[in-house]
Write a structure and sequence with these properties.
This protein is of the alpha/beta class. It has a domain of about 300 residues: Alkaline Phosphatase, subunit A (3-Layer(aba) Sandwich). Helices cover about 25% and strands about 15% of the residues. Strands 1, 2, 5, 6, 7 and 8 form a six-stranded mixed beta sheet that branches. The protein has a four-stranded antiparallel beta sheet with strand order 9-10-11-12, covered by helices on one side. The radius of gyration is 21 Å and the shape is globular. The two termini are about 35 Å apart. About 5% of the residues have low confidence.
């Protein structure tokens, strides 16, 4: 099995060959296996409106658009947070980032903390079931003393990538190799997106070459919404409000595609789902055992294979810096979303909507702001602005019940982010040099 939980590393001719070889060696062993191979592709700062298949008029994403046309495209799929570190932790564990202590904010190269080794990842679940596991790309879940928190200590047998945010491809500042530079209509962001899409094409071509496409589930999504403070180089949330760093839809609603020829019927689903659901779903599809811990994800196997309704009926929106006193900022229940707190973010600057900006301070709402996301995905029209009806009273009662039950059970693990910094922990080309990190500049 090849398990990828991040975007592709920087591509040049030799890196592409290395990456392809790395991929092929892992897939061949499972050509005849009855359980499916699993490929997870996790983009970085890619917004809901960035792909051609999600409505962007000038994005060139033919490979992802083909997966969307031949697979199941989600319209209501959510990350667990609008920042990298917490959302990646939740994807791998099937648990909200508050449980694992992956808050507030993100890990830096010299952070002492990391995803606790006591947390059980998708890779560990599958490795225990006989799968080979590997990861390529951005980790951003900690490095630690002697690489304590690296993927190879979290269930991945192979790892090729960087341990923290490298701020390239579709994450600002973007980079594209010669094959893609200045080839798109969207400037540097579009070039990086084209290269990302090209990497997806390489993956699919390799599956086809080794005749394992029909026995492989490919799942694509993104870690959080666009960083609009970068303007046209920050990505697009499409119709969704705001972006990275906020609990509005643009921060956490993501493009998502499930592709498995012969098993997943092509189409579009408006059912509710989340990155939290990936671990329990993969466990069911492969026959692996679920970890003996509290999970926040639901098994959506029947949604994928039969088009059945999703088991997920709610989504809880934590801000990048959560605390137990405030709890979740927003709750989605069916088609309705209630905001109990709103706050802008520096990451969502420059848009015309001032609600998104850093100057939009933390604001409690009682009664909450209430939106019908089916009719108003942009969160423009507060349903309570014209007064409370009997129907809306019941909706609020149901939402508050779900919120109460969730917050009564949720636990906050010790913050890994607040464990502080140690420059000596930062990976260095010259490990014995001093002072760090300024002495760690690698030769060009």
């Amino acid at each position: 099995m090849f398990l990828c939980t991040s975007k592709m590393p920087r591509i040049s001719t030799w890196i592409e060959k290395l990456f392809q070889l790395f991929l092929l060696c892992l897939l061949v062993a499972f050509t005849d296996a009855k359980p499916p191979n699993i490929v997870l592709i996790y983009a970085d700062d890619l917004g809901f409106g960035d792909l051609g298949s999600y409505g962007h008029p000038s994005s060139i994403t033919p490979n992802l658009d083909t997966l969307a046309a031949k697979g199941l495209r989600f319209t209501d799929f959510y990350s667990s947070c609008a920042l990298c570190t917490p959302s990646r932790a939740a994807l791998l564990t099937g648990r909200f980032q508050t449980r694992s202590g992956m808050y507030p904010g993100v890990l830096d190269p010299g952070s002492r903390g990391g995803l606790p080794l006591s947390e059980i990842t998708i890779a560990e679940v599958l490795q225990a079931h006989g799968y080979s596991t590997a990861m390529v790309g951005k980790w951003h879940l900690g490095y630690g003393a002697n690489g304590t928190f690296l993927p190879t200590h979290q269930g991945f047998q192979r790892y090729l990538g960087v341990p923290y945010s490298h701020d390239q491809h579709t994450h600002y500042p973007q980079f594209a190799s010669g094959q893609y530079a200045e080839k798109s209509l969207r400037g540097p962001f579009g070039d990086a997106l084209m290269e990302f899409d090209g990497s997806v094409g390489t993956l699919i071509n390799t599956l086809q070459e080794f005749k394992v496409e029909d026995s492989t589930l490919v799942f694509f999504t993104s870690d959080n919404g666009p960083e609009t403070m970068r303007m046209s180089r920050g990505g697009s949330s499409g119709l969704m409000k705001c972006g990275k760093g906020t609990t509005y839809e643009g921060g956490m609603r993501e493009p998502a595609i499930a592709y498995w020829p012969g098993h997943i019927t092509p189409g579009v689903t408006h059912e509710l789902a989340s990155t939290l659901d990936i671990l329990p779903t993969i466990a069911t599809l492969t026959g692996a055992h679920l970890p003996n811990v509290t999970l926040d994800g639901y098994d959506i196997t029947n949604l994928l294979l039969k088009g059945s309704p999703s088991k997920r009926k709610t989504m809880f929106y934590y801000p990048p810096s959560p605390n137990e006193a405030q709890g979740v900022f927003a709750v989605r229940y069916g088609k309705y979303k209630a905001h109990f707190f709103t706050q802008g973010s520096l990451h969502s600057e420059t848009t015309p909507d001032e609600d998104c900006h850093f100057t939009a301070k933390l604001t409690p709402h009682d009664p909450p702001l209430l939106f019908d996301l089916d009719a108003d995905p942009s969160e423009n029209y507060n349903l309570l602005a014209q007064g409370m009806t009997t129907d809306l009273q019941q909706v609020l009662k149901d939402i508050k019940r779900e919120k109460y039950n969730f917050e009564r059970e949720i636990t906050f693990g010790e913050s890994q982010i607040l464990k502080g910094m140690d420059p000596a922990l930062q990976p260095c080309c010259n490990p014995t040099c001093s002072p760090k990190p300024s002495c760690c500049m690698c030769p060009s």
